[in-house]
């Protein structure tokens, strides 16, 4: 399985150089230089003043970096690039030489740090980053289940035959989804996913009161 590697590239001269750099990075000549097959394709994107080049291996990312340096030298572009590696437990781009957790306790420790960070973000934002979406076969079933949750003090948003229930972090969302699958019945579809903020815009009072009870 491929890892996730990323080059972060910024230039001093501004927007015009970034546009030209992105075009040339996507051009077939760069792919030819790197001798990439379809499975080894690079992905290039731009976000504001930064260009990102995504690769499947460190070797591929470093080869792309050398090709970018050659382009910069040819056109006298002044750029800065930085290699980063996606850390699957921390879910962040980190130093490529930072070791990945090797033991179960290290993985658990990083996971706990991530969950705590997600909860703090949710509190600061005023809305959660995760939600559980429940789809029922009918409007009647969705309405009845929504009323049941309301009776338990669980805020939710109902849209026709769909329910949205917010969660402050991914673990809480997964635990909530597991419980709701059992309670909603086999005819309902339950998915834990990233939040669209709607659930808590409609239920601003005590938005996190339900998490402890439902996730247990």
How would you describe this protein?
With 216 residues, the chain is α+β, with helices and mostly antiparallel strands. The chain contains 8 helices and 9 strands. It has a 5-stranded antiparallel sheet, with helices on one face. The two termini are 34 Å apart.
Structural features:
single chain; 216 residues; alpha+beta; five-stranded antiparallel sheet; four-stranded antiparallel sheet; 8 helices; 9 strands
* String of helices and strands: EHHEEHEEHEHEEHEHH
**Strand line-up across the major sheet:** 2-3-1-4-5
Largest sheet: 5 strands, antiparallel
Number of helices: 8
Number of extended strands: 9
* Helicity range: 40-55%
User: Proportion of β residues?
Assistant: 15-25%
Measured on Cα atoms, how large is the radius of gyration? 23 Å
Query: Segments where pLDDT lies below 50 for 5+ residues?
Result: 202-216
The outline comes out as elongated
- Intertermini distance: 34 Å
Give the overall pLDDT as a whole number: 75
């Amino acid at each position: 399985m491929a890892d996730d590697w990323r080059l972060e590239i910024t230039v001093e001269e501004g927007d015009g150089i970034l546009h030209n750099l992105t075009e040339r990075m996507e051009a077939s000549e760069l792919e030819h230089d790197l001798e990439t097959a379809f499975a080894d394709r690079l992905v290039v994107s731009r976000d504001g003043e930064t260009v990102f080049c995504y690769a499947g291996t460190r070797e591929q990312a470093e080869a792309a970096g050398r090709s970018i340096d050659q382009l910069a030298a040819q056109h006298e572009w002044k750029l800065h690039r930085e290699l980063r590696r996606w850390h699957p437990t921390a879910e962040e781009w980190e130093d490529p030489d930072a070791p990945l957790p090797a033991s179960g306790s290290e993985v658990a420790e990083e996971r706990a740090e991530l969950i705590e960070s997600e909860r703090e973000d949710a509190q600061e934002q005023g809305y959660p980053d995760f939600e559980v979406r429940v789809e029922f076969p009918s409007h009647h079933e969705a309405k009845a289940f929504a009323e049941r949750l309301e009776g338990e003090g669980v805020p939710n948003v109902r849209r026709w035959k769909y329910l949205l229930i917010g969660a402050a972090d991914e673990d809480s969302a997964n635990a909530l989804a597991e419980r709701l699958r059992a309670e909603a019945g086999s005819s309902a579809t339950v998915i834990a996913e990233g939040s669209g903020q709607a659930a808590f815009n409609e239920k601003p009072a005590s938005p996190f009161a339900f998490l402890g009870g439902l996730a247990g």
